[in-house]
Amino acid sequence: MQLGTIKGQQRVVDALTRSLAANRVAHAYLFEGPEGCGRRTTALALIQVLFCIQPVGGNACGSCPSCRKLATGNHPDLQFLSPLPDKRDISIEQIRELQQVLSLRPYEANRKACLIEPADRMNEKSANALLKTLEEPPGHAIIILLTTQADLLLATIRSRCQHLRFSPLQDQVIEVLMVQNGVEPALAAELAPLAEGNIERALSLDGDGDETKRRELMACLVQADTRQISTIFDTAESLSSGREETLALCTLLVSLIRDMLLLRTVDQSGIANRFLTVELTTEADRFSPDSIMAALELVLTTRRAIQGNANPKLALEHLLLGYDRLRKGV
Ligand SMILES: [Zn+2]
């Protein structure tokens, strides 16, 4: 990926391009931004320019051995550091190993590079162990820390890095990126607004089963009835397979309820689930406009609760009970 072709993060790309042109690239960066906004892609593009054997006008050539190795994800001078599979934190042992590797001469590039992600998973010990390396990386190594929330990092770490803030991607950018990734333009236009600025989520929305999943979810919503409490418990049971899946489900719910709101207004051009127009219209008619809005808020609150470690199944039960109450106007 060329630095110059990164979409939707113009401010960050401009800053990096200026530093490259002035030969003043920092030795430690902190890239902060939401999931799926291009932090990792930008970090890799920056490293690619630095490693490239014959860069052209501030961009990597894309064809030299170094560029080719980075594209396949195995350049011997690039290290990735993340928590080990069964661990929450990046350990102090991992930081020491990294320091060991960085202190060796680069194999092919003229410096080494390291990507730490998520950097906020360094505990106090490992973060403190990294301080000195951040201040003076051996052999002019470049270290890039990725995080969704910089204030989770020690202030001493933050102050040693050049801090660049990424924004969520705009819907139009998501749409363009989806089309580049082979999604049908019409479908990309429908799905992009549901991705909330996250290209990874956008691409995951384009699964084959997605339309089926929405139909099933719609059917579950219509059936959930507090007078037959078992319908609520059974539905919650069948829908909640895990935290990530339940969060994805909440995103789909937001899209369905948002459409119900739109169907009650004059301008219906932004409707995402057109194939469900009949079902959504019927369902929307069972609500007052205010209570649809409240249902939408209920889903958003539930999603935050699940992100904050609430039990997915219990949270869904609570959501369905609340949804049906709102529908009845209680
Ligand atoms: Zn190259």
Query: What is the residue-mean pLDDT, rounded to a whole number?
Result: 89
**What's the arrangement of strands in the largest beta sheet?**
2-3-4-1-5
How many alpha or pi helices? Answer: 15
Radius of gyration: 24 Å
Give me the CATH architecture of the largest domain, please: 3-Layer(aba) Sandwich
Shape: elongated
CATH topology of the largest domain: Rossmann fold
Give the helix level as a range of percent: 40-55%
Class per helix and strand makeup: alpha/beta
Small molecules bound in the structure, each named once: zinc ion
Oligomeric state, counting identical vs distinct chains: single chain
Determine the strand fraction and express it as a percent band: 5-15%
Question: How would you describe the overall organization of this protein?
Answer:
- With 330 residues, this protein is an alpha/beta fold.
- It has two domains: 3-165, Rossmann fold; 207-328, Zinc Finger, Delta Prime, domain 3 (Up-down Bundle), CATH 1.20.272.
- 52% of the residues lie in helices and 7% in strands.
- The chain is built from 15 helices and five strands.
- Helix 14 (289-307) runs antiparallel to helix 15 (312-328).
- The radius of gyration is 24 Å and the shape is elongated.
Name a few traits of the molecule:
330 residues, alpha/beta, Rossmann fold, Zinc Finger, Delta Prime, domain 3, 15 helices, binds zinc ion
